[in-house]
Amino acid sequence: MLTPDKITSTVCPFCGVGCTLELHIKDNTIYRVTSPHGSPVNHGNLCVKGRFGYDFLYSPRRVTKPLIRKEKQLPGKRTAAASLNEWREASWDEALDLVADRLTEIYQKSGSDAMGMFSCAKATNEENYLMQKIYRALFRTNNVDHCTRLCHAGSVVALQMAVGSSAMSNPAADVQFNDVFIVTGSNTTETHPIISLQMKAAIEKNGAKLIVVDPRRIEMVNYATLFLQQKPGTDVPLFSAMAHVILKEKLYNRQFIDERTEGFDEFAASMEKFTPEYAESISGVDRQLIIQAARMYAGAKNAAIYWALGIPEHTHGVENAMSLIHLAFLTGQIGRTGTGLNPLRGQNNVQGASDSGAMPWHYPGYQVVDNEENAARWEGIWNVEAGGLNRKRGLTNTEIVGAIGPGGILSMYIMGENPVMSEPNANHTRHQFEQLEFYAAQDLFINETHQYADVFLPAAGWAEKDGTFTNTDRLVQRVRRAVDAPGSARPDWMILADVAQRIEARLKRPQSSGWNYSHPGEIIEEMGRGVPDYAGIRYQRLESGGLAVPVPTVDHPGTPVLFEKSFPRGRGMFHPLEYKPPAELPDDEYSFTLTTGRVLEHWHGGTLSSASSLDDLYNQALMELHPQDAARLGFTDGEIARVSSRRGSIEIRVKVVERTSPGVVFIPFFFARAAANILTNDAIDPRAKIPEYKVCAVKVEKPGSSTEDGRLPAYRQRGRY
Ligand code: SF4
């Protein structure tokens, strides 16, 4: 066995669990990953992504020098570069000057509404903070967003409305103190593997009882006391029927309702119609199971709810999350160890990117942009003249894509995201990117979206830079530089600071808003000046482990459990609910419901995982099709099917499996060759602006003559792009 030159402790770059990794380094190369037994989140356990997925850093597809497109790209005629031959290498000065020149020119010509950017849940807190600061302080726009819009935006809006805080209320490890817990809209085994281990241990060692509510027969069902297999998009009637039972059988906690909540009477009246019979007729779940689930949850000493994207990714995602919040309010199952409302965050730093202000309606710390006091606070910190920051709420991800074109968004700067893969209705997204006047990409790889860019700025990977991530249960942890970045790739925070200085000089604004950071620790301290929850975060404090925000002072120990005495908004707010069906339901022509999601071996838009050895484990898209449907349509396992929605078609291999229900197909969204988001609907939740990834209508048929040829697009092949 090799003897390492050094072992560097850091945090996993994949999912939001935030496991501790020990990177074993030899000759400036990571060759092995372990985790110490005493690690705070994962106790030495790692999933396949954390243990083996690091080798995307060494992919031959990695871009290591700044690139500029050879051919000038014109709005409406912009094309996707098919190979590296369409780019030329450039110096950092030339590439950064081009970015600053073109962005400044478009801003000065067309104003702040022409500017749009996507920040990145894979990047550090410090980098997300800088990205939004550039767009707010220099370009005076709030068209600032990242992929939280595409995952938990519905949960965030509902929790803000009801509680005044959108984070998980309890540490995930609190599941060991649950007597009963609900898992809904979360295939936890594949999306948050280490949390699923903790859930299984709570059941097997402590006797906790699990209720799974999900359209698919996920692996956690094997550990469940109750399984409610609902039709996709029926969460509001199902969970409201549980509330109905709790109300009718007087299983609620009157003292908690009286002392900690408001709006109860109006809410209770709205629950009258949600009888178990009504919920059964919509969700397909046996009314007796709904009654049992309500009694089990309400009767527990300590109960908690864990959910993921199956709840918010709907046109009524806010109402879905609200129906869960009501259960906790009714029963008082919040504010104590072993209870809580826990939206499991997907990306490694989606919580931190949101905390850092990479969102269109909020400055860092969820401070709304259209509040005078908040705007004045950040004008002070960023040395912007009084009244200089834009008070108008910005556009969200999907709105930014929709607004690209003359009179709308003319320029984009995208750090680490891949909207052609991650936005719904991918053909429309491609068309929109063709209309841009200028596009700057900053990433490790040229992905499906960056193919449209004018300039590519090569970034350092997570193990090649310093910073912090905030995991799903609010633990701020240090990310440490373990190896050198290849070629001239640089940390995102350094690139952003250089871009900002160049833009500031061109705008002739005083160079005092501060971009001269010598270390990212200075950036998080600046953020803490405006965000009380981060005011006590210092890098030296994180050397011995993470701190759970809120950390309001430099000697505060952190806050693992929220809402013990009150909610940030004061009392918890009940909201009356109505059931609204999904925007697009099956009909005679498009007779199947498509629902999308993740698999264990891949992650996000697939940019990183497809460049790693994880791709060897799961290298093609598979569509789950129920055996009854397979028999009816004449499909056998492994055959190719053509799947079409009103927005496009893909060809994909069929996996005949009982995990889905008859009439429902499931497709993971990582695969460029069979991109699920060509099919998905870009209808959005009116409040959270999150697209309805979880339900759309499709047809499934035998392919015509143009069957899939099995080859990956050039930019996804393992060799050089
Ligand atoms: Fe990484 Fe998540 Fe796996 Fe932990 S559970 S090793 S954080 S991908």
Could you walk me through the main structural features you see in this protein, from its secondary elements to its overall organization?
- There is one protein chain.
- With 721 residues, the chain is α/β, with parallel strands linked by helices.
- It folds into three domains: 67-149 and 349-548, Rossmann fold (3-Layer(aba) Sandwich); 153-344, Dimethylsulfoxide Reductase, domain 2; 592-716, Beta Barrel (Barwin-like endoglucanases).
- Helix content is 29%, strand content 18%.
- The chain contains 22 helices and 30 strands.
- The strands form eight sheets. It has a seven-stranded mixed sheet with strand order 5-4-18-17-16-6-7. A six-stranded mixed sheet has the order 24-26-25-30-23-27. A five-stranded parallel sheet has the order 10-9-8-12-13, covered by helices on one side.
- A hairpin with a 2-residue loop joins strand 25 (640-645) and strand 26 (648-656).
- Iron/sulfur cluster is lined by residues 12, 14-15, 17-19, 42, 46-47, 49-50, 193-194.
